[in-house]
Specification:
The complex is a heterodimer of chains A (153) and B (421). With 153 residues, chain A is α+β, with helices and mostly antiparallel strands. Helices cover 43% and strands 12% of the residues of chain A. Chain A has a four-stranded mixed β-sheet, with helices on one face. Chain B has 421 residues and is of the alpha/beta class. In chain B, α5 packs antiparallel against α6 and α16 packs antiparallel against α17. Classes of the chains: A alpha+beta (153), B alpha/beta (421). The structure holds flavin mononucleotide and iron/sulfur cluster. The site of iron/sulfur cluster has 14 residues of chain B, from α16 and α18.
């Protein structure tokens, strides 16, 4: 982890009465920099926040958006909860799998995409909803999947 | 009279629908921050609490607890108090909080300020779910603008009040929306519910008195203080409903609390899609028990829905039409609770796994007739035994589906049996 990330984590810790409160934000800082939370990265976070490594690892493994394994350059989340299901998300997900050649939970061999399913993204008026990195895409159709993915290199 | 004209005046969504409301200038020009200024400089805390009590405002996050009552539980003399904003919005079908934040982040900031100066909290944490990237950018920008204007920070509006606001991020866990699990998460731990009592109002964040309030609940405050509780009540009181699923126009709608389910679906949301018939709807997210055609005239308010055997919850109406397979719907709902169970208590952790396994069997044509009784008995075993409402929300819907759509389950099992033979 770079000194810049450590500094940012220390700044975050200052926003809270107890420094452990900065753990989730700190893990995101680390994950953004390193791509995923390897054991070494978790150790750096633990060190910077002066927390036991076991606690940091236990917390990181609880939450769905911390990646403990390498992920692709872009993470694609397809919402499969009820409102999206009732609006055909399964066809969008199938098309994603076809175009990427991977199943949910996997990463393309070229490291470009990781495909994941998501629980309700809170964007049900836009069902089926897809999140690529930080961008939300609305009412995605199977036909739109390929051009959409083309935007992400 | 057209349907549009018959719709009552909108007092919440008008902020969201107006252009440029992410900009403080625009928001101020429309009267924004006047209510917070009054709360900080003219009104006493008791006066604000009385206004909120008179408005009848109840929590919009799911539990529907009267807001003013919660404020009164916060010990006045406590030296350190917190406001924690619940922006985790994870209940399936709910998107009103995101709509409010993206459309008019200043409305939330203003609501936060009113709550903070009233209970005497100097520090506010907004727990925003991670996936609201756009909302977070807009909210952070709005807070920065408000700070620049002297509305956030020391001596806000020139008063003696100081309020700091920090935007915190969730990390993808539905249970973190439950207020005590949220506090655990905000303290940097696994999001597992705490034993209550003590309630957060007595011992919440870092064991200090904490007001946990939903985003929408807070957004009502500038409206209540601005219009006065009487006018506010006359308007319904107004409430936001997230309507999604198989309707012609999914979206967030503002309607008087107590609007009928029928009106929400068929007037506000444009009815079903061409050629489709209404089949069922969850009135308050997937944690509520779904309603069917016979219930369409039920009033969408906490008490009426409780009487109807379900709940208003987060007022997320998920609509199914006649093309929906109720076994698949329930299977998907159960899968969600299985995956999101925090694992703290056995009935929820194990029960959701067993139920999901049985659904998988049924959906894959390996269902057995005994499975339906088995589902009922697992549901009975979970009822009243789970540590928190996540687990408790599974049995009622499941049992209702077994009763009301038994034919769909039986057909699935029969077809599966034929298939296997
Ligand atoms: C499993 C579960 C998930 C919840 N998720 C949320 C949520 O995402 N947002 C929310 O505001 N309340 C949620 N709640 C309700 C909160 O526990 C709490 O009642 C609410 O934040 C209080 O604020 P309010 O009174 O303004 O509604 C959830 C409750 C449970 C049991
Ligand atoms: S009911 Fe489920 S979510 Fe709630 S505490 Fe028990 S295991 Fe956790």
């Amino acid at each position: 982890m770079t000194e810049r990330a450590r500094e940012e984590i220390r700044r975050l810790a200052g926003l809270y009465e107890h420094r452990q409160s900065a753990l989730l934000p700190a893990l995101f800082v680390a994950q953004q920099e390193a791509g995923y939370l390897s054991p070494e990265v978790l150790e750096s976070v633990a060190e910077t926040l002066e927390l036991p490594l076991t606690e940091v690892t236990s917390v990181a493994s609880f939450y769905g958006l911390f990646y403990l394994e390498p992920v692709g350059r872009h993470v694609v989340h397809v919402c499969t909860n009820l409102s999206c299901m009732l609006n055909g998300c399964q066809r969008v997900l199938s098309r994603m799998q076809e175009v990427m050649g991977v199943r949910p939970g996997e990463t393309t061999p070229d490291g470009r995409f990781s495909l994941r399913t998501a629980e309700c993204l809170g964007a049900c008026e836009e069902a089926p909803a897809v999140l690529v990195d930080e961008d939300r895409w609305a009412a995605v159709t199977p036909e739109e999947v390929e051009p959409l993915l083309d935007r992400y290199r | 009279m057209t349907t549009e004209a018959a719709m009552p005046e909108s007092v919440l969504l008008r902020w969201v629908r107006a252009e440029g409301m992410a900009e403080i200038e625009q928001y101020r020009r429309a009267g924004g921050y006047d209510a917070a200024r009054r709360a900080a400089t003219e009104l006493t805390p008791d006066q604000v609490i009385e206004m909120v009590a008179a408005s009848g405002l109840r929590g919009k996050g799911g539990a529907g607890f009267p807001a003013a009552q919660k404020w009164k539980f916060i010990p006045k003399a406590a030296p350190v108090k917190y406001v924690v904003v619940n922006g985790d919005e994870g209940e399936p079908g709910t998107f009103k909080d995101r709509t409010l934040i993206e459309g008019c982040p200043h409305l939330l900031v203003e609501g936060i300020l009113i709550a903070a100066v009233t209970i005497g909290a100097r520090k506010v944490y907004i727990y925003l779910r991670r996936e609201f990237y756009r909302g977070r950018r807009l909210l952070e920008a709005a807070i920065a603008q408000a700070r620049e204007a002297g509305y956030v920070g020391e001596r806000i509006f020139g008063s003696d009040h100081a309020v700091e606001i920090v935007v915190h991020s969730g990390a993808g866990a539905y249970i973190a929306g439950e207020e005590t699990a949220l506090l655990e998460s905000l303290e940097g731990r696994r999001a597992m519910p705490r034993q209550r009592p003590p309630f957060p109002a007595q011992a919440g964040l870092y064991q200090q008195p904490t007001l946990v309030q939903n985003v929408e609940t807070l957004c009502h405050l500038p409206v209540i203080v601005g219009l006065g509780p009487d006018r506010y009540k006359e308007l319904g009181p107004p409430a936001l409903f997230s309507v999604s699923g198989a309707v012609a126009r999914p979206g967030v709608y503002e309607a008087p609390l107590g609007v009928t389910l029928r009106s929400l679906i068929f007037e506000h949301a444009g009815g079903m899609r061409p050629g489709r018939r209404f089949k069922a709807a969850f009135p308050g997210g997937s944690s509520s028990v779904f309603l069917t055609e016979a219930d369409l005239d039920v009033k969408m308010d906490p008490d009426s829905l409780r009487q109807a055997g379900t709940m208003l919850g987060s007022a997320a109406v998920i609509v199914m039409d006649d093309s929906a397979d109720m076994v698949e719907v329930m299977a998907r709902a159960v899968e969600f609770y299985r995956d999101e169970s925090c694992g703290k208590c056995t009935p929820c952790r194990e029960g959701t796994v067993w139920i999901a396994q049985i659904f998988e069997r049924i959906l894959h044509g390996r269902g057995r007739t005994e499975d339906l009784a088995l589902l009922d008995s697992i549901a009975a075993g979970m009822t009243g035994t789970c540590f928190c409402p996540l687990g408790e929300s599974v049995p009622p819907g499941l049992v209702a589906s077994l009763r009301l759509f038994r034919d769909e389950y039986e057909r699935r099992i029969a077809v599966g049996a034929v298939h296997v033979c």
